[in-house]
């Protein structure tokens, strides 16, 4: 349904006919770590996340999975490869 509390006009999965069913009845503001994210938008002079109603919970155990400004660094392992085994694999 369309939100009628804070993010008016946007589709919200927590909005019901009785009002907002999220914990507390309203969305919470973005936290400091959300600065620079593409999913944050300004509604009524405050910044809110368009992906989740409580951004602080997303940052509680590490990086937010919706954060567009955070890049994950993949660790490439530089294990030593036996050249004899590698040549045998290449001949298959």
What would you note in describing this structure?
The chain has 2 helices and 4 strands. With 92 residues, it is of the alpha+beta class. It has a two-stranded antiparallel ribbon. The protein is elongated, with a radius of gyration of 22 Å. The model has no long low-confidence stretch (mean pLDDT 82).
Please outline the helices and strands:
Blueprint: E1 15-16, E2 19-20, E3 40-43, E4 46-49, H1 55-58, H2 83-91
Antiparallel strand pairs: 1-2, 3-4
Could you tell me the mean pLDDT?
82
Structural class: alpha+beta
Task: Tally the helices.
Answer: 2
Low-confidence stretches: none
> Separation of termini?
58 Å
Proportion of residues in β-strands? 5-15%
Order of helices and strands: EEEEHH
**What's the number of structural domains?**
1
In short:
With 92 residues, this protein is α+β, with helices and mostly antiparallel strands. The protein has helices at residues 55-58, 83-91, and strands spanning 15-16, 19-20, 40-43, 46-49.
Kindly list the characteristics that best describe this protein.
single chain, 92 residues, alpha+beta, two-stranded antiparallel sheet, 2 helices
